[in-house]
Write a structure and sequence with these properties.
heterodimer, A: 228 residues, alpha+beta, Alpha-Beta Plaits, 2 domains, 4-stranded antiparallel beta sheet, 6 helices, B: 234 residues, 7-stranded antiparallel beta sheet, Type I-E CRISPR-associated protein Cas6/Cse3/CasE (chain A)
């Protein structure tokens, strides 16, 4: 059962601050809400933290039922146990042509070809224009398109807002405690409206994420009613 | 038919001690009965050693309109004349809190008499501690009805700034004296004597009212989460 979970985080708590400032600690905490024998190869756990004024909300999408108390006990409020819902009805209801508002925090990058190497060098997209183009071009391969709207001059432009662009940088440690260097992620938050073009592909996007950095809070697309 | 006198406790700083000992002067998170009874006694001009049984017998309830925040004041004092050791004192205050306190009595004339003396108090009035002067609009009216009902029907006194941070509908907690047979949170804040040579306090049980006071807040935030709403309404 694919689940969608919402947990309110408490930044005044020692554990809450740790999770909110260290994506790797958050990744571990979110992972431990799920059974350890989960097959990581065939499924994906996605999460994202939204900051609205003083609220910090953690969204988690996972392939099975979740035990949110692992996170709530160290970083939430005992009176706010975390709300979990079956994601399947929403996924099943999606049809081609459906329009929804969405929010996505992603890690927009491209790969530059490198001489003599098998794989290219990954560099981030930096400006809002580059990041907007990245998502607009990526959308069709993920089963949706960004809706367009007219700007002041009457020109059509994507109905997309890019904000909260930031650089995340933290030490990566393997389970044996050895530091394996620094992880740097350039993230951007996208808000806009989309239209479903391929329902099956889009379900896959919602359940498995979009772009890189999925372990560190990127790639989860959440939907809402337009204007709601 | 009982009557209820409402007091608005809205000073910038308040301090309501009920467990303070020695150099840690703590504050409760809402007003104590002893603090409010002391304020009424001061208004009537009773001396510290005067009897206060009639005031301590009044039924008491408090509504928390705005919880405020805890302020810690760390003080040091040296006896520089004699060279004694330094005293360290921690005083705690509630800053920016708003409470509505209700005292209930079957005897309306008693409450009207208290109202008269609050209009022209004999001694200065303060909110729990001498350094926290009472606000000018302290005195509200005497209403018919029991304390909890009156607190439920009275308008919300929180500041506009505070209203903006709260949801559109909320419940204000009401703390009241326990009814006979009811079990509550025991507190030693019933004044038996304010005599400075030997202050004495009795126990009462405090119960948080199950319903509280529900108020509408047009300035409040819409708390619904659109993303979660979408998932659960699919």
């Amino acid at each position: 059962m694919t689940t969608f979970t919402r947990i309110l985080l408490n930044p005044q708590k020692r554990g809450g601050r740790k999770l909110l400032t260290n994506p790797q600690a958050m990744h571990a905490a979110v992972r431990s809400c799920f059974p350890s024998d989960l097959d990581d190869a065939s499924s994906r756990i996605l999460w994202r933290v939204d900051r609205n004024d003083h609220d910090h909300v953690l969204y988690i999408v996972g392939p099975v039922g979740i035990d949110p108390t692992v996170v709530v006990e160290q970083a939430g409020w005992p009176s706010r146990p975390g709300e979990s819902a079956d994601y399947r009805p929403l996924l099943d209801s999606l049809r081609v042509g459906h329009e929804r508002a969405f929010r996505l925090t992603a890690n927009p990058v491209r790969s530059l070809p490198a001489d003599g190497a098998k794989r290219g060098r990954v560099v981030p997209h930096v400006t809002p224009e580059q990041q907007t183009r990245w998502l607009v071009e990526k959308a069709p391969r993920h089963g949706f398109e960004i809706r367009t709207c007219a700007d002041e001059n009457g020109d059509e432009r994507p109905d997309l807002l890019v904000d909260r662009r930031s650089d995340m940088s933290f030490d990566h440690r393997d389970p044996h405690g050895e530091s394996r260097g620094r992880v740097t992620l350039r993230t951007a938050r996208f808000e806009g409206t989309l239209r479903v073009t391929d329902a099956d592909l889009f379900r896959e996007t919602l359940a498995r994420g979009l772009g890189r950095g999925k372990a560190y809070g990127c790639g989860l697309v959440t939907l809402a009613r337009i204007g709601g | 038919m009982s009557a209820t006198l409402l007091l608005l406790l809205k000073g910038p700083m308040q301090s309501w001690g009920h467990t303070s000992r020695y150099r840690d002067r703590t504050t409760a998170s809402y007003p104590t009965k002893s603090g409010v009874v002391g304020l009424l006694a001061a208004a009537e001009g009773r001396r510290r050693s005067a009897p206060i049984e009639d005031l301590a017998r009044l039924r008491f309830a408090v509504r928390v309109d705005q919880p405020g925040s805890l302020l810690h004041d760390y003080q040091t004092a040296q006896r520089w004349q004699t060279g004694g050791s330094t005293s360290l004192v921690s005083r705690y205050y509630l800053s920016d809190a708003v409470f509505l306190a209700a005292v209930e009595s079957p005897d309306r004339e008693l409450l009207d008499g208290i109202t008269q003396s609050l209009h022209s108090p004999r001694f200065p009035l303060f909110l729990g501690r001498r350094s926290c002067p009472a606000n000018a609009d302290l005195l509200q009216e005497v209403h018919d009805g029991d304390a909890v009902d009156v607190l439920r029907s009275e308008r919300w006194f929180a500041s506009e700034f505070h209203r903006r941070t709260r949801p559109q509908q909320l419940t204000l907690p009401i703390f009241r004296d326990a009814l006979p047979g009811e079990i509550g949170d025991p507190r030693q804040d019933v004044p038996l004597s304010f005599d400075q040579t030997h202050r004495r306090y009795g126990w009462r049980d405090v119960v948080q009212d199950a319903e509280g006071a529900t108020v509408e807040n047009p300035l409040g935030k819409r708390k619904a989460d659109p993303f979660f709403e979408e998932v659960i309404s699919a």
